TrEMBL record:
It holds the Pfam family SH3_Tf2-1. One of its GO terms (molecular function) is RNA binding. It comes from Tilletia controversa (dwarf bunt fungus). The keyword RNA-binding applies. Residues 40-203 form the Integrase catalytic domain. GO terms for biological process: DNA integration. It comes from the Eukaryota. This is Integrase catalytic domain-containing protein. Keywords: RNA-binding.
Length: 410
C-alpha cells in the first residue's frame, strides 16, 4: 500500500498510534536501555558501621541439617562472615546467629542492608533492630541492586565452594571458615587494602615466617598515623571505584522520571499473572505488561507507589501476589453503568471465591475473554453472544445465583 498511497505525516501518526495502542504497549518487549540512573548507597566512614545480610540457599543438606549459608558483609572494609544456616530458620534464629557469629567481632552495626525476605520484614526483626538502635534498610521489591555488595559476595562464595567441595558436596560447611579468611586476606580493588587490614590494622598471619623474612619486610609499623593514612587511602580508592561503577552503570541506563498521575505499564514477570498455571504452554505468547496504572506517589529515586484497582488490591491482601491470578471467567453481564459494550465478568480467582468485576478493572486478560466466549458458544450452543444478554457458564451458575441472592438480601 505504501507504494501506491500517500498519507501526510505517516511516520508521526504511526508513532502516536503505537504509543497509544494498548496491545502494542502490553505485548511488545522493550528494546531501549533500562530506566534509572544508579542511586549508590553512601559508603560509611567507620569500620563495621553498615553491614549487608543475605542468604545462599539451594546447597546440599548436611548431616546436621544445614542447607543454607548466611552471608554478612561490612560495606566499608568488605569484611565477610560465612555462617551455616537452615532454610527453616525463624527470624529469632537468624538474629541469634548474627549475635553469636558477627557481634563478637564487629559489635553492633549502625545500619543493616537486606532484601525483603520474610526474615527481615517480620515484626520480631523490626522490634529487635529498633531496640538496638540499628537502622534497617531494605531493598525495593524486585530490585536487588540495593543489596548488590552481598549479592556479588554470594556469587563469589558459590564460585569458591565449587572449587573446594567434595564430589558429593557433603562437606561445604567445613570450607566456610577457610574461605572467609581467604576473602578477608585478599586485597580489594575498590579499597586497595584487604578487609582484615582495614578492620584490625594488620595483615593476618596465615603461615609461619622466619625472622629474617620479617626483618626484611619494608612495610611500615601499624602506628596510629599509619592506620589513619591507610584508611584515608582506602576511602579515596572506594570513592573512585564507586564513581567508576556509577558512570558505567549510567551509560547502560536511561533516565526517566514519572509524575503523580502518570499512567504506567507494569512488567508481569515478577507477579506471575500471565496465565492460568495449568496452561503454561501459552506463557510464551502471553502479554509482557499489564496496566495502565496511575502513579500515586514517588518513593525515593527509583520506586513508585501505584494506584492498583480495589479488586486486585483486595485479592492481594487475602492471598498475596502469588495468588493474584485469574483462573478464567465463569459469566458475563452487561454493565448497567455503561451502555457502550462494557461488561462485568464473573471472575474465578486462584485463591478467593469468584466475584463480579468490571472488565475495566481486569487489564491484560483478553485471553480469558476469548476463552469464555469460546466456551459459551460450545457449552451453551450459542451462535451469537448478544451484548444485552447475561451469560453464565454451567459451572458458574450456582455461584452467580448465590451472589445475586446476597445482593438482593443486602
Amino acid at each position: 500500500m505504501y507504494e501506491y498511497l500517500f498519507a501526510h505525516a505517516l511516520s508521526q501518526r504511526v508513532t502516536a498510534h503505537v504509543q497509544a495502542c494498548y496491545e502494542c504497549q502490553s505485548n511488545k518487549p522493550r528494546r531501549h536501555k533500562p530506566y534509572g540512573d544508579m542511586e549508590p548507597i553512601v559508603t560509611p566512614s567507620e569500620v563495621f558501621h553498615t553491614c549487608g545480610v543475605d542468604f545462599v540457599s539451594g546447597v546440599p543438606r548436611t548431616a546436621d541439617g544445614f542447607d543454607a549459608i548466611m552471608v554478612v558483609v561490612d560495606k566499608y572494609t568488605k569484611f565477610a562472615f560465612f555462617i551455616k544456616a537452615k532454610t527453616t530458620d525463624t527470624a529469632e534464629t537468624v538474629a541469634r546467629r548474627f549475635l553469636e557469629h558477627v557481634f563478637p567481632t564487629t559489635g553492633l552495626p549502625k545500619a543493616l542492608i537486606s532484601d525483603r525476605d520474610t526474615w527481615f520484614t517480620s515484626e520480631f526483626w523490626e522490634c529487635l533492630t529498633k531496640s538496638l538502635d540499628i537502622k534497617l534498610r531494605m531493598s525495593t521489591a524486585y530490585h536487588p541492586q540495593t543489596d548488590g555488595l552481598v549479592e556479588r559476595m554470594n556469587q563469589q562464595l558459590e564460585i569458591m565452594l565449587r572449587h573446594y567441595v567434595a564430589i558429593d558436596q557433603h562437606d561445604w560447611d567445613s570450607k566456610l571458615a577457610p574461605l572467609a579468611m581467604a576473602h578477608n586476606a585478599q586485597r580489594q580493588a575498590s579499597t586497595g587494602q584487604s578487609p582484615f587490614m582495614l578492620g584490625f590494622g594488620r595483615e593476618p598471619s596465615l603461615f609461619p615466617l622466619k625472622d629474617s623474612v620479617l626483618a626484611a619486610s619494608d612495610k611500615p609499623n601499624a602506628t596510629v598515623a599509619g592506620l589513619l593514612a591507610i584508611h584515608r587511602d582506602a576511602q579515596e580508592s572506594a570513592a573512585l571505584a564507586q564513581e567508576r561503577q556509577e558512570r558505567a552503570y549510567n551509560e547502560r541506563h536511561m533516565k526517566l522520571d514519572f509524575k503523580v498521575g502518570d499512567s504506567v505499564m507494569v512488567d508481569v514477570k515478577n507477579y506471575r499473572m500471565r496465565l492460568d498455571p495449568t496452561d503454561q504452554a501459552r506463557t510464551k505468547l502471553a502479554a509482557r505488561y499489564i496496566g495502565p496504572f496511575k502513579v500515586k506517589r514517588r518513593i525515593g529515586e527509583l520506586a513508585y507507589e501505584l494506584d492498583v484497582p480495589e479488586a486486585q488490591a483486595g485479592v492481594a491482601a487475602e492471598g498475596g501476589l502469588d495468588e493474584l491470578r485469574v483462573k478464567g471467567f465463569l459469566g458475563r453481564r452487561p454493565n448497567v453503568l455503561d451502555d457502550n459494550g462494557k461488561f462485568d465478568y464473573l471472575v474465578k480467582w486462584a485463591g478467593p471465591a469468584p466475584t463480579w468485576q468490571a472488565d475495566t478493572e481486569l487489564p491484560g486478560l483478553r485471553w480469558a475473554q476469548r476463552r469464555f466466549e469460546k466456551r459459551a458458544r460450545t457449552e451453551l450452543e450459542l451462535r451469537r453472544l448478544r451484548q444485552r444478554d447475561t451469560i453464565i457458564l454451567p459451572d458458574g451458575q450456582a455461584r452467580a445465583d448465590a451472589l445475586l441472592a446476597a445482593s438482593q438480601g443486602a
